[in-house]
Amino acid sequence: MPTSDGPSHFPVFVAPLHAGHQRPAGYVPGRVAPVRLPPPAKAPPPPPVKPHGPAPLQRATFSLSEESRSRERARDLQQRRNTFICVGASTGAFFITLLLVLSLRSGDVFDENCPDHNPSLSSWNPGHQPQRAAVVQRGQLFKLETSATLLSLTIQSGGQVVFADSADGSKNITLRTHHILIQDGAALHIGAPKCRYRSSATIALMGRSDSAALPETPGLGRKFIGVLGGGTLELHGTERVSWTLLTRSVPASGLPTGGYAFQRNFSRGINLRVIDQDTAAVLFSERYDTHDSRNDSRTLTRLLRSLPAGRIVALAVGDSAVKSLLDETKTAIAERLGSSFVYNLKYRQAWALVSEVQGGNATCSEDVREHENHDTRGRALASRTFSTVEGVAFSVTAYSEWKNGFPISGFQVDAEDQVVLNLQDEVQPTWRPGDQVVLASTDFSMYQAEEFTLLPCLWCKPFCVVCPGKPQFLHVGEVVDGVDMRAEVALLSRNILIYGEMETSCYGKMCRFYGHDTFGGHIKIFGNFSSVHLSHVELRNMGQQSQTGRYPVHFHMCGDVDQRGGYREPTYVDGLSIHHSFSRCLTVHATNGLLVKNTVGYDTLGHCFFLEDGIEQRNTFYHNLGLLTRPGTLLPTDRNESLCTSIRDKVYEGYTPSPSTECKAVSTFWIAHPNNNLISNAAAGSQDAGIWFVFHSSSTGDSHGLVPETRAELTPLGVFYNNRAHSNFKAGLIIDKGVKTTNASAADPREYLCLDNSARFRPHQEADSRLPRVAAVIDALVSYKNNDVGAWIRGGDIIIQNSGFADNGVGLSFASDGSYPSDEGSSQEVAQSLFVGESRNRGTNAGQNKYWGLGGVDAKLRTLPRNRTFPIRGFQIYDGPVRLTRSTFRGFVSTPERFTSAVGFSLKNTWQLTPRNNLSQLSFHPSVSRPGRLSGSFKAQHVITRKTVGSEYEFGSEPKEEKLPWVLNMAF
């Protein structure tokens, strides 16, 4: 059950407890393939029989020969010699062990939890031998002390390689190789769960797809880390906050109040701007015609005398300012602003000043230029840099000049090349200067995600960081109109890095689709491994777009990897940063019980978090973030329109695929079986969908025919709680459709595994349609700024509750088979949810956004979904039966270009509607215009008493209480 760890954090998912147990004799983890039991061990020979009682007395004899006495003396001498040798060897071993421990303790405190503290390890310094295929085998336990280059590294038969570490984190070890293979009881360790790696460790995977340096390894290919049966891979970097949320919006200008720019010709007199030193907001602007009006000069004097100390003042002359400029005004400017030039200003002389009130000459920046023949020699330019209370540096500039007979004056307030990110979680000191972070889009375009590098900051609080550069887009950091639109901020850097070395230009068959090398490295884990745990590791330039089964992290046919599979320490990945990947993020293939948490997948090709064959179950995805998920080529569902129609090598006889029905499904979370848990994840930008539940009618790929069919369509949904989906081009969440499970043929020329419209989710107990239904519960979903639809749900029974939908083309669309014989009796329900048509998050006219126009309650310019005339709807009914109850609508306002409705129908629906659809206890905010409340033909059955809900409010303010015109209870 979900629990809470405080108001500022996501709820923590506590997995059900399972009684621990030892692996039974002969048991092999994973249960992937039949395993032959080892032959019974031979019984040891019986020990010699010790006689009972005293030994029989021997008759003494004194007639020993000289030869016998000589042999006896030699035997005694040999025994004494052996004794000396044993004692010496033992003493030597003791001193060697003591020296090892002392030498270890001289640089670090001995810790048995640290794999590199094992005294059995031998120091290993293989050096740079790019032609050496190194093999570490039984009895070889190595501690890699320095950087090395190898052709390949194979660890087998109980061998072990451990990366050395140091207490101060000063080690910097880079291992460059074409591949690393771990098998047969061998292990690779970098840190441990209870002894995190503190230094910098890098594994660089070399090679091209057409390289002749090494032959391909069966099942692994090239450029990999492979874990075969019996292998151990333990990588544990320093624990860091993987990702968090903004708590304050970051505007495109970089300043909380936005930037400011002004320029005008013939603005005679002194032009003035007063700027707030704490926020950079322009508080006051005015022009004083001190050339023609003494009253204006007196008014300016009174203003300057009234300003509080510390205020920023900018002055610029347009045309001329001295004819009626009084001495008292000059004195005020000199005393209050520290001007040195004001007493000597001349007719039509250009003058600009920026200063702090009562700051003295030291805070004053001013400049003058002489007027000659209707021109000045250059521009009088005054500029100073200030800092807001949040630490954002900003510049204030004033300028004045004559140019080609025209007087020009102007002002500019702009952020310097840095931005402060205020964050929900305490990130100091685990986020460090030089680290890379990415800030997610909060608009319709996923391409508004932006990368930054952290700067040193002495004043930064634990909950903020400073980055160089100015953002190009608005990133919301607040709850807007009741919907949490705070942008995700992810840390990309880790102190353990695995990356693929890439070519500087494209080569091979992928160049027809991509203009860069897409043959990165990959990690592949096979079934029956001994132990695999990966935490806080950075994976960059991983995945191979030209090959199936070559992903940044790939659990391949591993079976049960938790306690059910015999693993006392269930397998997990935690805190990984997978970015700039060329094929997916993390693939779970015929693997059950895996925990994936706190992992970031950014800027990747193809489905990011990917369940492959439709039989993967009991996996838990907790607090993961995926953003900027681009189209790929591997599967039809990965492809966009152009890739769909141009890749036809697996269709029947040149058939041209239909992109809208067979492809265009690339998703950040591609969930091929409902019996998996999604908790507190964020899908923050995909070319098609954020989260897609797809239903395989039978197992596919390598799993087909190997396991009993799981009947995914009938299987109850796992836990779905507290997930977010936004900035996706098609949809935030989709629960619908399946994949084609037959090869292309004349009867059906479509490609194997293309998107198929045959599946309908209808969960029942034990996946048996004869047993009672089990409702699938979608709890606490936030879905906003998705171009097409916030959530498209087909099937039954499905309940959506406690959710928020905002700024989508369509907020939520339900489609059900309940009125048809295929699943008679099913239904869907939405309860206690909020629908916002157009919020105060107006977005930025840039990125992938194509449409910009008037909209919203304030009728201001904003980004738009689909097109300017697309009729925005909150809740869309397709067929039914559906129930919508105890929900609120706000911000649905029609424009001259389009209609808008809080509740409406699918525009292209030619199917019938059931009369059992029902709406009840709906609250319409005053920002829902009367023509936009309901579309279609409705008859009100009841009109209930008015109900109070929150009204419009600005960012950061509290909602006001206000009466609604009505609350409806309707059926149609």
UniProtKB/TrEMBL annotation:
The reply to whether Translocase figures as a keyword in the UniProt entry is no
EC category name? hydrolase
Q: Please state every residue range assigned to the domain named G8.
A: 122-248
Question: Which SUPFAM superfamilies does this entry report, sorted A to Z?
Answer: Pectin lyase-like
Q: Which reaction does it catalyse?
A: Random hydrolysis of (1->4)-linkages between N-acetyl-beta-D-glucosamine and D-glucuronate residues in hyaluronate
The EC number(s) given in the record are 3.2.1.35
The keyword Transcription belongs to this UniProt entry's keyword annotation: no
- The principal location of this protein is membrane
PROSITE patterns tied to this protein: G8, GG_LECTIN
Signal peptide annotation: none
Which GO molecular function annotations are given, in alphabetical order? carbohydrate binding; hyalurononglucosaminidase activity
Q: Which residue ranges does UniProt annotate as crossing the membrane? A: 83-104
Bias (Basic and acidic residues) ranges = 66-75
Q: Pro residues: which segments have biased composition? A: 36-54
Q: Spell out the subcellular localization from the entry.
A: Cell membrane
Pfam family of this protein, just one? G8
Q: Which UniProt keywords apply?
A: Cell membrane, Glycoprotein, Lectin, Membrane, Repeat, Transmembrane, Transmembrane helix
Gene Ontology CC entries for this record:
plasma membrane
Q: Where is this region: Disordered?
A: 24-75
In terms of SMART domains, this protein maps to: G8 (SM01225)
Official protein name in the record: hyaluronoglucosaminidase
What is the species of this protein? Takifugu rubripes
User: Which gene is this protein's source?
Assistant: cemip2
